[in-house]
Specification:
163 residues, mainly alpha, 6 helices, 0% strand, globular
Length: 163
Amino acid sequence: MKLKRLTTMAMLTGVSMIIFLVEAQIPIPIPIPGVKLGVANVITLFALWTLGWREAGAILLIRVVLGNTVAGSFSAMLFSLAGGCLCWVVMSLLKPLVSIQQTWVMSIFGAIAHNAGQLAVAVFISGTVSILVYAPVLMIAGIVTGFFTGKCAQLVLEHMQRL
């Protein structure tokens, strides 16, 4: 791996960690567990477009593991890993089908997949499917937050193209 690529990955990992840790400190006014903006996903989307799916996956994994080691718990790490990995897979599969101007679409589907992964872990840990009552609210939240983070990533990517 070239030094410039490795350095870029390290910087993006650091930025995503900072965003993750800051966002973890911001209380969300929605009383449903698991709902948050997911702003660190902007970095994952950026890495997907600029570096590739492997590198984006590595950045995501490092962020989730280190971020939850510092500011979370083991169970939070399980939720983040399941959601983040499923989100990454879905966005990686969608990338060849969309343009940079449709990054928000990738992000929405990724956010929905993230919530589905978290729900799967919740069902597994609790041993009950009644937790799926949260699914409609989490899917709506995924659409809203996915659009927001996707548009942010799209604006950054479009700006970078102009540079």
